[in-house]
């Protein structure tokens, strides 16, 4: 697609009757709105609604800047929930208020895309206040178009955070009272108190002159992102004739006479690139993050993970206090040392001790999409409840390490290899049941070869300062490995009594 569509090209277009077309629909719009029956030839917006104008300005800017193939449009909940019917770009529709969070994820995953978060006042300034403030404060390199009509449209006119003092709504039938419902929220002013945003402007769809200013602001917001700058926010004061109970022309006047005095038009922030280029935090090295010397043998020797490896997802489950979460953290840090992508996701109840706890560990050579594991390759079940709860989630052909010497009599094994290992008895014999999780780690490393035992010792050495405890951990690791080496038989289920099937 050409970088800039020249106006001259458009002027050359003639329609079927030979008339010169000076203004055509932006190519960033679909030709046909995918609507049913009689509704096919109209948008789903009410006559005079500001969404239509805002959509046009955005579509034109996308086309003129040559961004159509790169744009991902995140639409909100509200009247503009169906934006994906109109914009012929990548589209994602998200839960109420969550557009900046979704846009953050998309932009960080696909930094070369132009990510637009399109939101209304209920979506952005009520249910989504936290998302927008934090996305702005993080300086996410996205463009947010905040279309402010001072009311909830889709749900029939409830008061929005931007509803004017005195303005009637279904939830403020006497008019908004500052003493009861607070003052209207000025989102542009609020966000421009933050350090990170590069561009914050408020414009209005009140008359042609202001619409042309809005056009420039929309374009500017997208140019900033195209040029790799930071967070851009364009607030667009917009008419909602239906809920305001006005005809389209009066609604526009109302924007000028009522909305603008409360929400003055202004460029609140317009930073030059030089002003924030040094805001990027310095990237710390992995050895710095792990607080180990880059010369540490276990770090340098195994970085880039030269030995045999496939990706592993591991769920570790048991009671709080058994070292469930710690075992996951140790595996994750070992993976980092071996140059893998890693994630650790804990889950536990309010009672840290003796309540149920589990964690998800991903070890991967590729970037990890989600730390949540629905079907782990390996389950380490540190109690019977966890075995019963999670065994059926294990991938067919996966592995279950169960920390008892046998399975419960009525337990129906899934299609996974199961190793029963009396880890706490082994740990007890070594001198402390606290090292049960390390026995299981030894068994895991020996059975799967997912990480190297030497890396485990490297990590443990940085965590455990007392030499006698470190020695205990070394013995526990060895004991778990030798149990798998010497006592586990080939078969789907291995129990120490030789019962294998
Ligand atoms: C989690 C959740 N809570 C509430 C709703 C109901 N809801 C749908 S649209 C809306 C308000 C939208 O108002 P606004 O963001 O101003 O958009 P407009 O409809 O004016 O375009 C609400 C509360 C919802 N869909 N999801
Ligand atoms: S209710 Fe208001 S915001 Fe929603 S489509 Fe109609 S005019 Fe537009």
Total helical segments = 19
Record field, number of beta strands: 14
Give the class from helix and strand content and strand pairing: alpha/beta
Low-confidence segments, given as residue ranges, are: 1-8, 496-501
How widely separated are the two ends?
A: 62 Å
Radius of gyration: 30 Å
**Bound small-molecule species:** thiamine diphosphate, iron/sulfur cluster
Strand order, sheet with most strands? 2-1-3-4-6-5-7
Proportion of residues in β-strands: 15-25%
Largest sheet: 7 strands, mixed
Q: Please, what is the average pLDDT?
A: 89
Helix content: 25-40%
Rough outline: elongated
Describe the model.
- By secondary structure, the chain is of the alpha/beta class.
- It is elongated.
- It starts with 6 loop residues before the first helix and ends in a 7-residue tail after the last strand.
- The strands form two sheets. Strands 2-1-3-4-6-5-7 form a seven-stranded mixed β-sheet, sandwiched between helices.
- 37% of the residues lie in helices and 16% in strands.
- Helix 15 (384-390) links the parallel strand 11 and strand 12.
- Bound molecules: thiamine diphosphate and iron/sulfur cluster (SF4).
């Amino acid at each position: 697609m050409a970088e800039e569509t020249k106006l001259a090209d458009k002027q050359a277009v003639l329609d079927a009757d030979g008339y010169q077309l000076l203004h055509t629909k932006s190519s960033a719009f679909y030709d046909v709105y995918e609507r049913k029956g009689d509704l096919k030839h109209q948008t789903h917006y009410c006559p005079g609604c500001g969404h239509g104008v805002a959509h046009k300005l955005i579509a034109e800017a996308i086309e003129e800047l040559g961004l159509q193939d790169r744009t991902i449009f995140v639409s909100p909940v509200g009247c503009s929930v169906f934006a994906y019917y109109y914009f012929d770009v990548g589209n994602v529709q998200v839960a109420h208020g969550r557009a900046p969070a979704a846009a953050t994820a998309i932009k960080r995953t696909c930094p070369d895309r132009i990510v637009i978060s399109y939101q209304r006042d209920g979506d952005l300034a009520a249910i989504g206040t936290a998302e927008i403030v934090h996305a702005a404060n993080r300086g996410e390199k996205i463009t947010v178009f905040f279309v402010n009509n001072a009311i909830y449209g889709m749900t029939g006119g409830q008061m929005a955070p931007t509803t004017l003092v005195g303005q009637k709504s279904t939830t403020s039938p006497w008019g908004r009272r500052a003493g009861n419902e607070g003052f209207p929220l000025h989102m542009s002013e609020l966000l421009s108190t933050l350090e990170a945003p590069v561009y914050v402007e408020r414009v209005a769809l009140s008359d042609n002159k202001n619409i042309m200013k809005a056009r420039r602001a929309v374009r500017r917001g997208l140019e900033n992102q195209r040029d790799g700058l930071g967070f851009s926010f364009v607030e667009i004061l917009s008419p909602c004739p239906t809920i305001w109970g006005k005809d389209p022309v009066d609604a526009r006047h109302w924007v000028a006479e009522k909305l603008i005095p409360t929400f003055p038009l202004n460029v609140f922030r317009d930073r030059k690139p030089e002003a924030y280029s040094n805001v990027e935090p310095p990237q710390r090295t992995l050895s710095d993050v792990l607080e180990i010397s880059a010369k540490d043998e276990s770090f340098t020797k195994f970085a880039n993970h030269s030995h045999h490896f496939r990706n592993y997802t591991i769920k570790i489950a048991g009671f709080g206090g058994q070292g469930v979460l710690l075992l996951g953290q140790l595996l994750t840090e070992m993976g980092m040392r071996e140059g893998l992508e890693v994630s650790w996701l804990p889950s536990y109840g309010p009672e840290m001790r003796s309540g149920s706890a589990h964690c998800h560990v991903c070890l991967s050579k590729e970037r990890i999409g989600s730390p949540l594991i629905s079907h782990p390759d390996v389950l380490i079940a540190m109690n019977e409840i966890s075995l019963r709860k999670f065994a059926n989630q294990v991938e067919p052909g996966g592995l279950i390490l169960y920390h008892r010497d046998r399975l419960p009599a009525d337990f129906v094994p899934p299609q996974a290899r199961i190793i029963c290992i009396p880890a706490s008895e082994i740990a007890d014999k070594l001198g402390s049941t606290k090292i049960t999780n390390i026995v299981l780690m030894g068994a895991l490393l020996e059975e799967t070869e997912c990480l190297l035992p030497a890396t485990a010792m490297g990590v443990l050495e940085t965590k455990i300062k007392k030499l006698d405890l470190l020695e205990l951990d070394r013995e526990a690791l060895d004991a778990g490995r030798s149990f798998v080496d010497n006592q586990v038989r080939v078969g789907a289920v291995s129990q120490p009594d030789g019962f294998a099937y």
